[in-house]
Amino acid sequence: MKKEIDILKESQKVLPKLDQGVLLTTKYKEKVNTMTIGWGTIGIEWGLPIFIAFVRTSRYTKEMLDRSKEFTINAPVDQDVKNIIGYCGTRSGKDHDKIKEMNLTLVPGETVNVPAIKELPLTLECEVLYSQNQELHKIPAELQKRYYPQDVDSSVPGSNQDIHVMYIAHIKKAYILD
User: Fold this and answer.
1) In 3D, which of 167, 131, 170 has the Cα closest to residue 47?
2) In sequence order, what are the beta bridge partners of 165?
3) Calpha distance 17→13 (Å, rounded)
4) Residue 70 CB coordination number (10 Å)
5) Which of 34, 66, 117, 157 is the most buried (most CB within 10 A)?
6) What are phi and psi of 120, to 5 degrees?
7) 149-163 b/e (C-beta count within 10 Å ≥ 16 → b)
């Protein structure tokens, strides 16, 4: 069962979770992939409720997201999901079936072809409206050095050369799974 919520009135349920990490889940054809994100926000653009997510250009999730143009944001309500967040943030969906390996339960989406995840029941169903690569030269030098160090191998988690793509997505539905 799904309890629908007004995400603009209840955004405070999602935004604090970003600091600890939430899952961004995509699906292309029959493959479902999820990854941990810690950067994003909720707002209004073009008169629509939106979620803005940032995904590094090197991530497998980016490949899937560019093809499907849909994703779900999956956040805990009261659950301790540190192990799920940690696991999904340190492995690539190209090499791992994180859904299977973490024994996550998928629940079909209502407005998108991407599932929700029962273990992280607060769900936003999102459709990408716009995406844009960040421009490294426009980012302040101190942030470039911290988040995009050019002298660190791109495989180092949390600190690599790859820029992010900003995805602005319409939040088509928001709910909490019971």
Assistant:
1) 170
2) 55, 133
3) 7
4) 22
5) 34
6) -125, 80
7) eeeeeeeeeeebbeb
* 55 within 8 A of 164, measured Cβ to Cβ: yes
How is residue 99 annotated by DSSP?
A: H
Q: What are phi and psi of 61, to 5 degrees?
A: -55, -35
CB 113 within 8 A of CB 127: no
With a pLDDT cut of 90, the percent of the chain lying above it is 74
Place of tokens 């928001």: 174
How close are the terminal C-alpha atoms of the chain, in Å? 5
pLDDT tens digits along 109-141: 999 999 999 999 999 999 999 999 999 999 999
3-state secondary structure of 83: helix
pLDDT digits (tens, 9 = 90+) for 148-171: 887 776 665 555 678 899 999 999
> Are 168 and 128 a contacting pair, CB within 8 Å?
yes
Q: Pick from 113, 92, 119: which is nearest to 27 by CA?
A: 113
Q: Closest Cα partner for 84 from 100, 106, 71, 102?
A: 102
Please report the pLDDT score of residue 152 as a whole number: 72
Report the alpha-carbon distance of residue 74 to residue 102 in Å, rounded.
Answer: 15
In angstroms, the CA 168 to CA 79 distance is 27
